[in-house]
Design the sequence.
């Protein structure tokens, strides 16, 4: 067993007022709560919520700046920071204050996401997010993490390649192999036999388990230095706000929180569109986008109040696994959320998960990020990619989204206005590749003139959302209205909520009254059951027919 080498910017190995295992457990708990809310009354898509780089980048920008000598706190007192000037000395006050500031930024981010979602802003903006907005964002989402994936895999390239090979074989080569379910059952008890694509459904779990066992036998497990220090870690612990310190709200934390909210919202909207595409559903309606971000905001607020340095957002790797399985189960995602909540109640179990080798993490991300990248490329055919206008928008959005963060990483002090708020805000936003790709694509797509065919729009459909919905047959749209709709008990309460919040409820034409009305509370377990339904006519074929 070997450990990571401490760096000068790492946490002090001892003396903190809380156990890092408890911090990890609180993150699991908030992710579990957010996942349950998302699958129950949020976007209703099988998306597992997890911390993402959209929160990590502003947090690193916030902590990289030199903290002020005194930070104002509520009341007439101020929190003085005595900077340590001795060689190798770690000032715990600075670390605690940094954690409080990051938690304050996470809380601000959650509150802003809730406000935007309740006002229906994400849904209204998503109406104008066409293929030339989503495709560059997905391409950048698949590309920008390649350095981190390479670093994870470099722990042991042999095992990383073995994991990738096993995932490819199980999901692609053996994906069509059907395995008889319960082969020991007597044939006389049932006249039908159930076959499932076992290798495809286990294309992640089986390779990860095998490589994890091999890593343990080769003694290659990595435990972070801060978690390897002997400490009192309880088996059972109930996370609650304010146990260590309440979040600290400063101008720097406010700026970081705004950038977190904008970047996480952009990433989550891309996840919603990609997950619907992989499940052969029409794009999520505006009320689904607004509800989804509202529930994510509530989960992020909980994470910030629990002291977590990162919020919760929809996970691109999770969407990539949906593509590998070629199925998505809302009920399974709900159970995963409950499982994460259970782990969050036991810091000891959360600490055991840190023994997962970095090689396993890098191998899984290498496959899932490739799926996201390919999904981004496949979205280009929805518009006329041969058009000079579209070629410029796609190339400019992708290149600048990758260039600006690299430039900022090479020149960290290039932005210095003399005021912490704009410095942190600009540095955080310019370091978010997905946000930059979405922002540039959205601006250019809706400001540069182009024909309806160039923009991927049909006659009579003023927005990209309505145009993409029209390409699906009526049966698929009715099914999507049921899958995206709220459970019946909550749907009955929509008439009682205030008018400004009606944007979170499905409109009457989306309820699917022509075929039996909305789904019952125990709606279909799988969003793509049995893989028996035919896919709708592709947009490429639709354009060719025109």
Sequence:
């Amino acid at each position: 067993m070997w450990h990571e080498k401490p760096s000068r910017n790492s946490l002090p190995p001892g003396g903190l007022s809380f156990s890092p295992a408890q911090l990890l457990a609180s993150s699991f708990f908030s992710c579990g709560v957010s996942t349950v809310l998302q699958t129950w009354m949020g976007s209703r898509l099988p998306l597992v919520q997890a911390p993402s780089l959209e929160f990590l980048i502003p947090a690193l920008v916030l902590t990289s700046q030199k903290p002020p000598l005194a930070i104002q706190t509520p009341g007439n007192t101020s929190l003085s920071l005595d900077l340590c000037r001795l060689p190798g000395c770690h000032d715990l006050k600075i670390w605690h204050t940094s954690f409080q500031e990051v938690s304050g930024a996470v809380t601000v981010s959650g509150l802003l996401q809730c406000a935007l979602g309740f006002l229906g802003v994400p849904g209204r903006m998503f109406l104008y997010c066409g293929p030339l907005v989503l495709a560059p964002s997905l391409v950048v989402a698949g590309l920008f993490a390649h350095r981190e994936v390479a670093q994870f895999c470099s722990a042991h390239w042999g095992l990383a390649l073995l994991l990738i090979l096993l995932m490819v074989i199980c999901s692609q080569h053996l994906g069509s192999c059907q395995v008889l379910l319960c082969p020991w059952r007597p044939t006389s008890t049932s006249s039908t036999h159930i076959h499932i694509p076992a290798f495809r459904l286990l294309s992640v779990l089986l390779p990860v388990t095998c490589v994890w066992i091999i890593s343990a036998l080769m003694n290659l497990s990595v435990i972070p230095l801060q978690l390897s220090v002997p400490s009192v870690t309880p088996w059972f612990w109930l996370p609650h706000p304010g146990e260590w310190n309440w979040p600290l709200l400063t101008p720097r934390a406010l700026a970081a929180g705004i950038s977190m909210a904008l970047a996480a919202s952009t990433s989550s909207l891309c996840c919603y569109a990609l997950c619907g595409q992989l499940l052969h559903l029409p794009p999520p309606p505006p009320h689904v986008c607004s509800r989804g971000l509202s529930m994510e905001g509530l989960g992020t607020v909980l994470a910030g109040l629990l002291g977590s340095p990162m919020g919760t957002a929809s996970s691109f790797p999770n969407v990539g696994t949906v593509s590998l399985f070629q199925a998505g189960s809302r009920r399974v995602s709900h159970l995963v959320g409950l499982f994460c909540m259970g782990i969050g109640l036991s810091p000891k179990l959360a600490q055991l998960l840190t023994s997962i080798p970095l090689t396993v993490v890098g191998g899984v991300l290498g496959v899932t990020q490739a799926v996201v990248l390919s999904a981004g490329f496949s979205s280009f055919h929805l518009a006329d990619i041969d058009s000079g206008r579209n070629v410029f928008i796609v190339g400019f959005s992708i290149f600048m989204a990758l260039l600006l963060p690299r430039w900022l990483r090479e020149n960290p002090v290039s932005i210095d206005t003399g005021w912490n708020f704009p410095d942190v805000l600009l540095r955080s936003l310019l370091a978010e590749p997905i946000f930059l790709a979405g922002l540039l694509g959205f601006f250019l797509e809706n400001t540069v003139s182009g024909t309806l065919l160039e923009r991927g729009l049909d006659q009579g459909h003023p927005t990209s959302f309505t145009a993409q919905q029209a390409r699906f047959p009526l049966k698929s749209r009715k099914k999507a209205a049921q899958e995206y709709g709220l459970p019946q008990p909550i749907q009955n309460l929509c008439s009682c909520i205030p008018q400004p919040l009606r944007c979170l409820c499905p409109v009457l034409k989306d309820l699917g009254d022509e075929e039996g009305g909305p789904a019952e509370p125990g709606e279909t377990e799988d969003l793509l059951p049995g893989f028996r339904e035919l896919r709708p006519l592709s947009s490429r074929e639709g354009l060719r027919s025109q």
